[in-house]
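Input sequence (383 aa), recorded before submission:
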Amino acid sequence: MNWHEFVFSEKPAHRARRHIIFWLLWWIYFAVTYYYYLQVGLQKIVWGDLSSIMLIESFLLVLIHLTACYFFIYILIPQYLITKKYLQLIGGIILSAVFLLVAGYFIHSFVFPIIDPVYRSKISSNNSLWWTNINSGLLSAPKVIAAAAVIKLIKRWYLKQKEKERIEKEKLITDLQLMKAQIRPGFLFNSLDQIYDAAQKNSPQAPELLLKLADLLSYLLYECEEPKVRLEKELTMMKEYMALEKARHGNRLELETVLKGDTGDKTIAPLLLLPFIENSFKHCGCQDEQPWINLDISIENEILSMKLINGVDPAKTKVSTQEIMNVEKRLQLLYPGKHELKKYVENEIYVVLLKINLCERPELNFSLSSNVKNRQNSKYAIQ
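Predicted structure, token format:
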């Protein structure tokens, strides 16, 4: 059993251990402070006078604390504090205070004299009795109630955060499945039309394009089920997608791709790069002038760097589509603190700069060069 299971498990055995340890620690603390109070405040009563009955007396008082504590954290917090019913909450707190006073007075007046026959003689007046009762109840119980409430609220907040993360991850998995099912019908039908036209003309391109489409669909449908895929396969799939789009656009599209570095045995979450590529081809359809795309991907020291730039019509271009926003969420969840993404439009050029640390070990430090942006003043600067 690890610490996380001990703290957050709802199994009865684990819950019982947590509560026993919590109350045992409080009992020890309270017994020491209660003894110190009696020794200093009530004519210096020494441990020898009370003997082992001190443990019994402090245990009975802790039972009162326990009752008030559980009433607060299991009734007042969920029913009134969480639901913001503050008047009822104040009423419940007053009721708890009355209970602590009455129960404490009863134990000090009627139970302790039975356990310790000389106890009454050690308290010279009813004022001393009431003050002892207040000190052991109203002044002590709020400490353990506050500690238990803080633990309860922190645990509740932590579990809600984990549940929120779980829902976000499930949503992103669903988005990934939709993305795989999408590579949108428009692209699929256009590619099939392109292959059909090439086949009718007996073009040698037809078999190659059909094979690329088959590989792409096979990858999307069957090979993206794992949390990570081989980087080499992901890049191959991306090149085949771009080849199909290039064939569809023909010579009207200027496309240049550069891949540098050794993929080795590196892995990456599937379909992280494709939405950016898709988005650049969308921009091509919105341009009045000849469209162009330049893609530069490099792998160095476990860092994948992608620089994607293409011409755009700023009036018709959105920097963030829904697909891009979904990818940003996936990056935040899958590579927290291990990626950097910048995208902007400048001088009719759409720029995407992405870096991902693919290493499973603690993240390497990296940042996008501040002068990269200055080098993207025109499409003629593309290398």
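Checked by second reader. The first strand starts at residue 229 and ends at 230.
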